[in-house]
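Reply to dn_fold:

You asked what the input looked like. This is it:
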Amino acid sequence: MQFRAVLGRIAGIGMLFTLAGCGGDGGVNSTSGGSTTPLAPAPSAVTPSGLSASTSFSNTMQSGNFVTLRAAATVDRPASNSGTASPTVQIAAADANNFISYNAATNVYTLNYTGSSGSQSKVDFTPTGARPTITANGSPDPTEVNFSYNDCYTSGCYSSNYIISHKANNFTYTYTAFGSNSSSSLSMVDSSSSASTSFFVFGFPTPTAAVPRSGSATYTLDLVGTYPGTGTGSVNFAAGTYNFSGNIAQSTAYAQTTGSFQSTGTLATTNGFSGTINLTVNQTIINPSSTANTVNNYTFKGSIGGLFFGPSAQELGGTFVAPNTSTQSNVSGTPVASPAYGAILGHR
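and this is what came back:
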């Protein structure tokens, strides 16, 4: 499976959430109790077990749990007859119950996550099989998975999408991978809807003692998520700072998207980095029945948290949710509330 298809699917999900809000979005980054403060994603409290002798994604991996970084948010839009057009945006904190595990005996990766009801759920990823075991579309590598399903009933429609990959822009990461769990529902009764997205980064973190404390390094970056892109990351290990920047580019049958992203922050005294991320997006929504396309200009700002991966920080990965800070309204004249989700991976 080519990773470009994965990018398209992720971007399509984000676009679905954005387009679904046209004409019904309200205040940016709002909740029923007022505005929210973005929470920086952080490594979960899950302690790696059995992976100490494993140093990369390979056929000789041992069973165990990965240290996993997660960023997640839910956008709930009210019923059309509720008297308000304001959605609620809830940004999830780090949760130790959300992590990726691996079973060497069966060659199965498992996404463990907290469901919308608060109960624990899990999804297995294997090279072959059928629902509820998710297939890797014939790939012998269970870390290359892109699976979706949709169901409609009298009460409403539901869809889910699961992705696990360690490939980006034709580069295969050795020590880092990412995952995504997205779900959405639309009520046929009152047109209310809910969309939840989680992004995970997992892999083989650099031991604290092996993280460089002097000099600097340049990383080639891959932005995956709602708005995919590429860029360059400069990490100053001596000063304990970093600067990531790059361009956003996505072309689909529904929209042409360009823009840029930038993230700056500090390095942890152990292994890790955290800071802010800003995205500027210029999006032309294609109207197939008219030559008058809709042009939107969005800005997003949020928190990002990440780790260095590999024996000597050869790679890095982090996750983010960036609420929409745009002042421009959409075609209906109401602000757009859907945040940008995703992950940044880098290699040198």
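DSSP finds one helix and 22 strands in the chain.
Hope that clears it up.
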